Amino acid sequence: MADLLQSFIDYTESNQSWEAILAINVNESGLHDEFLFEKAIRLLPLTWQNHVLTTRSLYDRRTALCNRLLQIFGCSVASKTSPKSLTYTCGRYGKPILASSDSVKFSMSNGSTHTVMYLVNSLNNNMEVGVDIASKTDIKSADEINLFEDIFSSAEQACISRCDDRSKIAMFIYYWSLKESYTKFTGTGLNCELKAIDLGAINLCQDFSSIKRQIHGNSVIFQSQWINDDLNEIVTTCQNSLKDDCFERTCIFILTFKDMINYLENLD
Ligand SMILES: CC(C)(COP(=O)(O)OP(=O)(O)OC[C@H]1O[C@@H](n2cnc3c(N)ncnc32)[C@H](O)[C@@H]1OP(=O)(O)O)[C@@H](O)C(=O)NCCC(=O)NCCS
């Protein structure tokens, strides 16, 4: 088994409570190969196969397939359950939930190159988690940011305005991933007022940042880290602040699609 996948499994086995970010690079998945695509999609339940096949573009189809396989992989390892025994439910606005385990919480997000999973095994059943991955390439120019001014509080707007054009895009993406990870945490998705998720003034995340906020009565911790070498995509996680000392950087395991598929095939 490949080293990184094995180190993720070892990590889950050596700790009772743990959290990790798993990522797959969709562009490097090899899914443009029709044979691999066919082989991989058969690892999904039929309703999920249908979800993948009805997404709009070829790229979206590959992303949706990576997303669902990563979900099965992560939930199976975390709950020590075979993929066929996993059962899911979803929240009112579509937040996916693992029904077959109370201790495993997860959240998924698709970016411009990576699909990511935030996976937590916690003894606290009230734990909630959210994740978002956002990319600088989602924004074409700093001017485009003005179109989104309605989603920012005045403190946030002031923070973005103070940046030069280059860091303005990075700051916008950073705020966006913070806000969206919070909507994934609560499970409303975009059915909420983004402006009311007020992060206030923040410093631009350079490599990694961790901030604690009180939002709508929820005490939450956000962690953000850029994941590509060119600092193009930022992953932000959001979880309940249950203790004061969880500012430690969450490990990211960037797995290869091939290793994940091999692992899942060998389970069947
Ligand atoms: C959730 C939402 C914010 C995702 O936005 P996005 O930028 O396209 O998506 P991301 O790539 O970051 O995340 C997508 C993943 O988030 C998860 N997700 C979907 N809805 C979610 C929710 N309400 N809360 C948390 N996570 C959710 C899913 O795993 C989804 O992956 P999938 O589409 O492959 O199943 C947005 O689609 C939304 O607001 N959805 C609400 C949908 C809705 O109103 N549904 C009606 C009732 S079901």
UniProtKB/TrEMBL annotation:
Full protein name: holo-[acyl-carrier-protein] synthase
SUPFAM superfamilies: 4'-phosphopantetheinyl transferase (SSF56214)
Phylogenetic placement of the source organism: Eukaryota, Fungi, Dikarya, Ascomycota, Saccharomycotina
Matching InterPro entries: 4-PPantetheinyl_Trfase_dom (IPR008278), 4-PPantetheinyl_Trfase_dom_sf (IPR037143), P-Pant_transferase_sf (IPR050559)
GO cellular component, one term: cytosol
Keyword Transferase: yes
EC numbers on record: 2.7.8.7
All residue ranges annotated as the 4'-phosphopantetheinyl transferase domain in the record: 129-211
GO MF term list: holo-[acyl-carrier-protein] synthase activity; magnesium ion binding
Superkingdom classification of source: Eukaryota
GO biological process terms on file: lysine biosynthetic process via aminoadipic acid
Record keywords, A-Z: Transferase
Pfam families: ACPS
Coiled coil: none
Keyword Transferase part of the UniProt annotation: yes
Gene name, Swiss-Prot/TrEMBL: KAFR0B04660
